[in-house]
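User: Can you predict the 3D structure of ABC transporter permease? Sequence below.
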Amino acid sequence: MKLALQLAYKNLVGAGLRTWLNVIVLSFAFVVIIFYNGMINGWNEQAMRDNIAWEYANGHLLHENYDPLDPFSLEDGHAKIPSEVASKKLTPILIRQGSIYPEGRMISIALKGIDHNQNTIKLPTHLLKESKANIPAIIGKRMADAANLKQGDVVLLRWRDKNGTFDAANITITNIFDTNVSTIDKGQIWVSLDKLWQMTGLTNHATLFLNNSESVVSIDGWKFKSQKDLTKSLTDIIETKQVSGSIMYILLLAIALLAIFDTQVLSIFRRQREIGTYIAMGMTRWQVVKLFTVEGSMYSILATIVGCIYGIPLFIYMTHTGIGIPAASQDMGVTISDRIYPVYGIGLILGTILIVVISATIVSFMPARKIAKMNPVDALKGKMQ
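Assistant: Sure. Here are the predicted structure tokens for ABC transporter permease:
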């Protein structure tokens, strides 16, 4: 094996520019695979962390008639807070439909009431308690942009009470919070739960609860959704992105492997005398096949080294500065920050190296198999085979 490695290294160095072109193309594929997967991993971790901190907590306990994807379920999707809740760490939220009228326009919104003393999620609900306004409200940055509202603005809100009767009053925007989680921001206004109970007459009613403990909560008439259930849609989106991205770097890797394959075919064709000499000196055909396979697989080793030389500084830089995401991407309903910080795990790097080395070895072995069928005498004479 040592002899094969020495001969392979000398032959690669002797090939000069052809070798380094293959190595650079393969190293580029190596770096792109790690970069893309690192970016997806960074997005995944960041989105999960933000969703749990701002919206999901340790799971949701939903009223059995409430479906988050069906706004019509809000009418019947609430009930009195069960007595069992008192012994559990749960934060109630009541959701009602409403409309606001900024600048003469009508915008439909989800009016959400939450306990202003809660610290289960990162919403700045303590500001609702501190405000002196009649109906203080907080909204997200996206909602503020859509309605052209600023902190301190007063806007007319209309809602229905428990009997279906319309009522209206002015609310005061006490704070505009900035979050990456658009599902608690777009089209939503948050007020104190006590105030919403008073406005709607639905005293002690809740649509859902935020779970603030690690344990699973089970109450008749309510359905529990764990963190895993709640983050499934986000996980599915990220997995889809990984699959679509893999097409790009598979094509890139295929181009690099095709270059190695062509180089191996040309090398075997031009070095028939050398192959005949090896066999005449006592090497078996399969030892020569192994020599050429090792030579081809060494492209991947050199590509890994070259990729590390310019890839590691690039990855470190990206990890510290992040990658800017266009503002329009944050309005698509998917949790995504304005900057994604890639995460490069040791498993990702070792796995990518393994894929590149195995692929290059297989591609190198395929043309080298022809050597096993060569006639050594004809090879020494340089006859075409």
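The chain has a mean pLDDT of 85. Residues 59-213 form one domain.
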